[in-house]
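TA notes, week 10

Several of you asked for a full example with nothing omitted. So below is the full record: structure tokens for the whole chain, then the designed sequence directly under it. When grading your own attempts, check the secondary structure regions first.
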């Protein structure tokens, strides 16, 4: 059986994670890594420039897009989907319907399939929310992230003029978590659930007050949270914040018809956010390839993809081993 041919667009933390994840997949092979930067050396050799993408039309079954949600993915997605099936990790929750609509139009025109917002939230947590709501309709949903480094939020800070590098930690408010787990079903605002802590390396002479203001007032990222900004040196950032851990939990608290209380929870504790997210992207690349071969085009999210399509196991093997 021929292997699924995969390309990677972008070679930051996520792209490097996808490269590693593909090494664990016996039914998939890496064809090429593409980047806008010149002279990038990967574990597989020198990366290809994005201007070579046209040479690989028909030679790559699925392109995994590893750019940032703030500016890269909305533009890249619709362009790449004209010629390749795609998977992306777009994580700006408020703009998912817009991104879906744009991708669905292009995918149906090109006959390709794009999977958007693939990861753990949005992604696996989205599945948990739908599952928990379906089986426990009388209840409330709560999602907590962290403590950990958010790649999307860190990337958004790095896009600010005058910023050299940055890490952003999302931190759950522990008292809020305990209220939810106890079954109290509290009403919690966005600000009451999480805080955000930013460690920023600024260019010499940059206006620190302006940078801080742009961070704490950034819509869809920081404006709705209590946000603390620390300006530190590059040496401090490399020494104290080089890892990219993360995690979180989806909790639904409610009751059944006999007024019995139930708390459903999915929790993730991740040593490496990008490596785990990359593994999710690769599994969905397999699903996208299969669905497109069956005639599916346009756009999908995790809610539209049958779980069996993610697995390298056959349907018979899944029934025997997993059900």
């Amino acid at each position: 059986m021929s292997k699924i041919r995969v390309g990677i667009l972008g070679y930051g933390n996520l792209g490097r994670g996808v490269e590693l994840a593909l090494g664990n997949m016996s039914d998939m092979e890496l064809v090429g890594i593409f980047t806008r930067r010149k002279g990038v050396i990967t574990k597989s050799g020198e990366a290809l420039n994005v201007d070579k993408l046209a040479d690989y039309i028909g030679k790559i079954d699925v392109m995994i897009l590893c750019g940032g949600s703030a500016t890269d993915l909305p533009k890249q997605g619709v362009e790449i989907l004209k010629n390749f099936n795609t998977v992306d990790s777009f994580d700006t929750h408020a703009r998912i319907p817009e991104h879906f609509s744009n991708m669905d139009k292009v995918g149906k025109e090109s006959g390709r399939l794009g999977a958007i917002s693939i990861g753990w939230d949005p992604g696996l947590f989205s599945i948990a929310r739908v599952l928990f709501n379906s089986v426990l309709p009388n209840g409330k949903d709560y999602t907590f992230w962290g403590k950990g480094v958010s790649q999307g939020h860190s990337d958004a800070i790095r896009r600010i003029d005058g910023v050299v590098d940055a890490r952003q930690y999302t931190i759950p408010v522990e008292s809020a978590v305990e209220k939810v787990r106890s079954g109290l079903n509290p009403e919690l605002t966005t600000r009451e659930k999480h805080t955000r802590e930013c460690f920023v390396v600024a260019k010499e002479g940059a206006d620190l007050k302006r940078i801080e203001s742009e961070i704490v007032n950034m819509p869809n990222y920081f404006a709705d949270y209590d946000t603390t900004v620390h300006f530190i040196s590059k040496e401090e950032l490399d020494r104290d914040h080089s890892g990219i851990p993360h995690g979180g939990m989806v909790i639904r608290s409610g009751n059944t018809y006999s007024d019995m209380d139930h708390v459903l929870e999915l929790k993730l504790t991740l040593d490496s956010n990008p490596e785990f997210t990359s593994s999710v992207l690769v599994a969905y690349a397999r699903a996208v390839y299969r669905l497109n071969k069956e005639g599916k085009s346009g756009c999908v999210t995790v809610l539209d993809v049958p779980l069996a399509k993610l697995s390298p196991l056959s349907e018979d093997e899944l029934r025997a081993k997993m059900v």
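The chain has a mean pLDDT of 96. Use that as a sanity check on your answer.
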